[in-house]
Amino acid sequence: MNLLELREIRAGYDRIDVLFGIDLVVPEGSVVALLGPNGAGKSTTLRVAAGLHPPTAGDVLVAGRRVNGVPPEELARRGLCLIPEGRGIFPNLTVRENLRMMSYTGVKLADIEERAFDRFPRLGERIVQTAGTLSGGEQQMLAMARGLATDPALLLLDELSMGLAPIIVEELYEIVAQVAREGVSILVVEQFASTVLGVADYAAILVHGRVARVGRPAELADDLSEAYLGA
Q1: 231 has a pLDDT exceeding 70
Q2: Helices 136-148 & 109-119, crossing angle to 10 degrees?
Q3: d(CA 173, CA 219)
Q4: How many CB atoms lie within 10 A of CB 12?
Q5: How far apart are CA 112 and CA 119, in angstroms?
Q6: d(Cα 116, Cα 131) in Å, to the nearest integer?
Q7: What is the pLDDT of residues 131-150, one digit of tens each?
Q8: What's the maximum distance between 2 C-alpha atoms anywhere in the chain?
Q9: Helix or strand or coil: residue 205?
Q10: Is 71 helix (H, G, I), strand (E, B) or coil?
């Protein structure tokens, strides 16, 4: 079964389309990388999938059910979790307080903390530290820990590596691979293909608002060069 399916999606801003008939699927239990240069429409695609931006045409299906117009909070209850570009944490709250915000789902704080600190031991060492004073990598870890606290079936990641050192990015993608092995389906948007292709099962290349190519990562090397260099 496909956990997420976008069919002929068109979307834009102020009557100017930036997506032109996007077709994309995320099969159950897989990691799909959405790649492409700046301005290709990657983040808009993710926002449409998460219910944050309405498409002007086409259908969004989650677990086989059409969800056009379904509020983002309802999609979250159905198991879809978006971790947006720019972390998405509360910088003036402590690590513990950020995690406590996720207990509204009915999960006990102790269980949330146990899961978070098991995946990200560094957060356990920073539990009373204000989130805004964490390093960029630690803030991204906190954002992921908050998202995974909802036990999602489908995880949407937007530019996970943005502004982070390569060694931290590698560590984060090891966590992504671990989460995928646990059965979570993942759609991850990245500008820098090399950071994600090592954990992706499939990749789609987005160019000028259209899917130019879909395939296994090893099949797309030449197409990626063309997409990024404009050949």
Answers
A1: no
A2: 130
A3: 21
A4: 16
A5: 11
A6: 15
A7: 999 999 999 999 999 999 88
A8: 53
A9: strand
A10: coil
In this predicted model, what pLDDT tens digit does every residue of 43-86 receive, in sequence order? Answer: 999 999 999 999 999 999 999 999 999 999 899 888 999 998 87
Judge whether residue 229 has pLDDT over 60: no
Helix (H, G, I), strand (E, B) or coil at 210: strand
Amino acid, single-letter form, for residue 14: D
What contacts 220, CB < 8 A, 6 or more positions away? 203, 205, 213
- How does pLDDT run across 78-88, given as a tens digit for each residue? 899 999 887 67
Radius of gyration of the chain (CA): 17
Collect all residues with Cβ–Cβ distance below 8 Å to 11 and sequence separation of at least 6. 17, 18, 19, 44, 45, 48, 53, 54, 55, 56
Q: Exposed, middle or buried: residue 151 (CB in 10 Å: 0-12, 13-18, 19+)?
A: middle
